[in-house]
Amino acid sequence: MGKKGREIAKEIKAEINSCTPDYDIIYNYLITNFDESIGAVLNCMLNMFRHIENICNNEMAAKLIILLNNFVKNKKNKNALKRLYEKIDVFLGNLSKSLNWKELIDVEKYISNLVDIQNKCLISNSIRGKGDKYNFIMYLVFKKRDVELLGKYMTNNMAELIVSNSILTSVFMNVIERYINIEEDNQYEIKYFNQIIYLFLRGKLGEKLLSKDEYLSILKTSNKSFVWDLIYKIENDFVMSKEEVANTYGVSFYFPPFKEKYEYRIGTTKDYTKHDVLTIDNSGDNCLDDGLFIKKRSNGTYRLYIHLANVPEIIPYTSNTMREALKRQKTIYLPDCAIPIFEEYLSSGILSLLPNKVTNTLTFRVDVDTDYNLLLDTLKVVPGRIINRHKLSYDEADNILKKANTPLSEKLNLLSEIFYKLSRDNLRIKSFHKFKNILSQRNDTNSFKSDVSPAHLIVEYSMVLSGRFIPMMNKYYNLNLIMPWRVCPKFDEEFAKKVLDDIDHIDEMSDALKRVARDYFPRSYYSFENIGHAGLGIDGYVKVGSSARSAMDALAEYIIYDLIINRNAGDLDYKYYFWEREIKYWCEYANNKIAENNSFAEEYCYLRRNGKILELEKK
Description:
Shape: globular
Structural class: alpha/beta
Distance between the termini: 87 Å
Number of strands: 12
Largest sheet: 6 strands, mixed
Mean pLDDT: 82
Strand content: 5-15%
Radius of gyration: 28 Å
Low-confidence stretches: 124-130, 503-510, 515-521
């Protein structure tokens, strides 16, 4: 009686994990029990890809690729080859979700090899690969579909892509052929491939492609309006108005003519107007969405207040205004202007913590002991109202910090000491700054401070702390909250610890430092499921510090009202049902839209830098 599939998979994994596998045994299993064996092989490859810097993993991954190539070469059964194609397809899809962009690039050649194996599975020879670079770019464009990652890869491999002109033009022709076959009502696909085409035609790559115009003849075979819009832009050297650039990415400089108008209202808020609140922002900024105040209490402890712009107190969640903000997601900062999520009278007026006016806030209040530890039993979040007494720029705050014996300098120094203490207690943040110190060649590499001004660090740490407050309350009071969590995947803890232990002895440009530095900058994203934030070294993070500039921060504030502040008012089960649906939808939307906004900003900056933004005459 033959072995069961689970036993076969287990034996293959054990064989590979031994680091000295017998590849003949694995190959025989592929021949006799393909489905169980290929799953085990690909599963092991995923683990190797996560630690590809290990020499043993590198060698085994290469040999497994050779083994699969031999299998395809000797296997003529169409059904078996089709199944292998599909198995690799699923594997590549999962791979793109499991690894960040730098990790993907680290295993680029193996991904290309797997795509090449897929090509060999197609008996009809209808699709053939053209080498590693070609396969990997095709994977990024058509499988991964990540514009940001593709842009970084093309930038890092610019010279080789230009020299290997066949790679560049072949991929671009594939993009063009797919583009002209998109249905006219499929706006999502049109928008995505417009971004890809613009990416290829940007800078030196564009000059190389534009020198040959055969792709224009392909485009002109179509009678679709969106294709001819692209032809017009190409033939006019991509000179266009700022509105045309924005429309390509679903961005708008203007707000719809809503009839909704809002005025300041006090509401049922806690009066903090006598507090000596301060804000620190860039000079000239008028969208101020976080303020600080601290006072010493009679028992020797301190009471810290972080005051945030309060969107729910002014704007109903179901309003057109808030829906428009959610669609926009984040304020986009450009060299010549900013595109806000709320109309200016809101973002830089009613919602803003401008000086010498009463402003509604969402206020976090917590006591701090004499050793600068948070006393979690005192942590509260309440609607408040304040008057900003000190609107400081970063330079002004830094200059005040250098002075002695003034009330404001004492407050700023106390805030900086508290935030520094909290960061020192967090190994991840401490290590993060240690890396920055080494990379910037500071003499005091053991300092937890990096080459960032004290004022910037106060703002940075206060925002990190405000993002930790909701998870802290959730855990301390056992609230079982649902939130739009800001998460960051975990990295190789064992490897990172090993390098951290040796950090004082490694060269600043060593591969070990680069690998760990890479792991300290994994991409964060919004998620309904809280997996923690590995980059900050904390088990939960909810961004709330920029609600006048970030729609997801504002969304979190609405949920805080319903599930914390007004928890005992109304049907709690219905609240959870409603917000679960909203969070899941907007998290997925935000991750895509923020990436799209970033692509727009890059494209806009490129066109403006090259004098291709058409300035409309003012009437």
